[in-house]
Write a structure and sequence with these properties.
Helices cover 9% and strands 36% of the residues. It is mainly beta and 67 residues long. The strands form two sheets. A three-stranded antiparallel sheet has the order 3-5-4, with no helix packed on it. 9% of the residues are buried.
Length: 67
C-alpha cells in the first residue's frame, strides 16, 4: 500500500500499487532510463474534493541495481 496526499486538497490517500513490480509512484511521468520496463498510468478521483489526478506507477532502476 502507498500513502500519499491528494495534490488538490491534501487529503491522505492509501492506494494499492497495480502489482509488486510497480511499487514506486509519481504525479509526473518519470524520466526516460530511470525505470525498469514499463510505466502503468492510472487515474484516481479523490473522495473528499472529487478532483481527478494521474499516478504513474513504475519500478525504479535503483531497486534493480541493489539486487
Amino acid at each position: 500500500m502507498a500513502t500519499l496526499e491528494c495534490p488538490f486538497c491534501y487529503e491522505i490517500l492509501d492506494l494499492n500499487p497495480p502489482d509488486k513490480l510497480h511499487s514506486a509512484f509519481s504525479f509526473e511521468k518519470p524520466l526516460e532510463n530511470s525505470y525498469h520496463e514499463t510505466i502503468i498510468r492510472r487515474r484516481y478521483t479523490c473522495e473528499k474534493c472529487k478532483q481527478s489526478f494521474t499516478i504513474y506507477w513504475y519500478a525504479p532502476l535503483e531497486y534493480f541495481n541493489r539486487i
